[in-house]
Amino acid sequence: MTILACLFDLDGVIVDTARFHYLAWKVISNRWGFEFTEHHNERLKGISRMDSLEILLEIGGITVTSKDKTQLANEKNQIYLEYIMQMTPEDVLPGVRNFLHELRNNFIKTGLGSASKNAGLILERTEMASFFDVIVDGNLVTKVKPDPEVFALGAKLLRINNKNCVVFEDAVAGVQAAHNAGMKCIGIGSPLIVREADAVYPGFDNLRLKDLCIN
Ligand code: G6P
Ligand code: MG
Questions:
Q1: Interior/surface letters 136-164, b for 16+ CB within 10 angstroms, e for the rest
Q2: Which of 22, 48, 144 has the most ligand 1 atoms within 8 A of CB, as the residue to mutate?
Q3: Phi and psi of 129, rounded to 5°?
Q4: Interval 135-157 mean pLDDT
Q5: Is the beta carbon of 11 within 6 A of some atom in ligand 1?
Q6: Spatial separation of the C-alpha atoms in residues 110 and 163, rounded to whole Å
Q7: Do 182 and 170 touch, CB atoms closer than 8 A?
Q8: Which numbered ligand comes closest to the C-alpha of 46?
Q9: 37 CA → ligand 1 middle, Å
Q10: CA-to-CA distance for 86 and 88, rounded, in angstroms?
Q11: Which of 35, 56, 120, 134 is the most buried (most CB within 10 A)?
């Protein structure tokens, strides 16, 4: 395939905010006294805030009113924001900036495709916004991954055909969203988790464009 654009998930790909989401949800789950593990947390990756809460409640076997759900999601977000406000450009994962520079040097378009409504704030804190030609976040889409909307909209705004886009994702739902958009997907992280991806790399450290094995 000819790569004309690369679309990046944010949490767990550009920055390690997946850990902050986990810690914030853990504060909420601790109140109910059930163990919310990192293994459980994999199910929440790439999923919207409200859908994450639904999964958390299901794991804990907890029932709450819809008003309480809104309140709990807001509380989780406040805890999460405390972590985000501490972020600096040093929190960008190793090799990410070099890889994005390499794409620019090769005239490959770049886009962000994240379910997060806090993406703008995270990009601002880490000074990463200028690396992306388009930014599609949770405020712009109505359907969540594995629906392809977030990546399809990114490709549309970049005016690049879906089949010429490669997505970088750390979450199962995100890999599925890329494939549902008819795009190739590079998994970032463990092959045990992103096993449906077309190729998997542990991260961007030492990753070069020419190394990408996708057909
Ligand atoms: C990303 C993360 C999810 C998170 C979602 C919404 O996709 O992987 O874990 O739930 O964004 O984030 P938000 O910042 O809007 O709560
Ligand atoms: Mg992610």
A1: bbbebbeebbbbbbbbbbbbebbebebeb
A2: 48
A3: -60, -40
A4: 96
A5: yes
A6: 15
A7: no
A8: 1
A9: 17
A10: 7
A11: 56
Judge if the beta carbon of residue 72 lies within 6 A of ligand 1: no
Task: Express each pLDDT in 17-72 by its tens digit.
Answer: 989 999 999 999 998 888 899 999 989 988 899 999 999 999 999 999 999 999 99
Residue 132, number of CB atoms within 10 A of its CB: 22
Among 128-137, 177-186, 192-201, the minimum mean pLDDT is found in: 192-201
Distance CA 108, CA 117 (A): 26
- DSSP-assigned states of every residue in 179-202: HHTT-EEEEES-TTTSTTSSEEES
Query: 74 C-alpha to center of ligand 1: Å?
Result: 13
Cα–Cα distances (Å) from 186 to 20, 31, 71, 100, in that order, read 23, 37, 36, 15
Joined tokens for residue 139: 């405020």
Share of the chain above pLDDT 70, in %: 99
CB within 8 Å of 190: residues ≥ 6 apart = 200, 202
Annotated catalytic, 170?
no
Mutate to test the pocket of ligand 1, among 22, 26, 50, 116 (most ligand atoms within 8 A of CB): 116
Active site residue 11: yes
Which ligand minimizes its atom distance to the CA of 13?
2
46 lines ligand 1 (CB under 6 A): yes
Ligand that comes closest to the CA of residue 45: 1
Question: Rounded CA gap, 143 and 147, in Å?
Answer: 6
